[in-house]
Amino acid sequence: MGLFKKKKTEHHLPEGWSETKISDNLYITNIPEAQKQKWDNERREKDGVKKIAQKNGFHLKNHGRSGTVYYVESEKVCEIYFEISGVPEYDLIFYFDSLENWFLPTDVTMASKDKEKIKLQFID
Fold first, then answer.
1. pTM higher than 0.85, yes or no?
2. Which domain holds residue 68?
3. Which residues contact 105 (CB under 8 A, 6 or more apart)?
4. Of 40, 42, 71, 124, which has the maximum CB count within 10 A?
5. Is residue 1 assigned to a domain?
6. Beta strands of 7-123 (E only): which ranges?
7. What is the pLDDT of residues 73-121, one digit of tens each?
8. Among the residues of 1-124, which ranges form H helices?
9. 94 strand-pairing partners
10. With contact defined as beta carbons under 8 Å apart, do 76 and 102 qualify?
C-alpha cells in the first residue's frame, strides 16, 4: 500500500488495430494492411503521382522532415522513403531497403537488377 493510488490509464486503439505486450511498459502496435494501404494511396494522391508517372526520372516530394522519392521508368513507378537526419554527419537518410515493388501500373515485385540500377542512377 502506498500513499497514492495508481489510476489505470486507458487508451483505445482504432478499429482493427491490436497491441502485443512485450514487457511491463513495451507494446508493439499492429496496424492492418488495409489501413497502411489507405495511407499510401492518400499520400500518393497528395503527391500527384498520376501526373509524375508521365515523366521518367526521379521526383522528390517532401512532407516536413520526411518524404518520398518517386522513380519513374516507362510509366512504372516505385518509391524510396527518406527523412532528414538527426545527426550532423548526414543530411538525408534514404531507405533503399524499402525499394521492393513497382506500385504502378500494378503492384509487381521488382527484380534485384532493377533495384541496383535505380540505386546507382540515384547516387549518380
1. no
2. 18-123
3. 75, 76
4. 71
5. no
6. 18-23, 26-30, 57-63, 66-73, 76-84, 92-95, 101-102, 108-109
7. 998 999 999 999 988 898 989 999 889 999 998 889 999 999 999 999 9
8. 33-47, 49-52, 112-123
9. 82
10. yes
Q: How many CB atoms lie within 10 A of CB 68?
A: 19
What is the number of structural domains in the chain? 1
**Residue 11 domain-assigned?**
no
Locus of grid cell 521488382:
110
Extract the C-alpha cell encoding 65: 522532415
pLDDT of the residue at 14: 85
**Type of residue found at 113:** K
- Residue 9 domain flag: no
Q: Is there a domain that residue 6 lies in?
A: no
Cell of 86: 538527426
In tens, the pLDDT along 16-29 reads 888 888 888 888 88
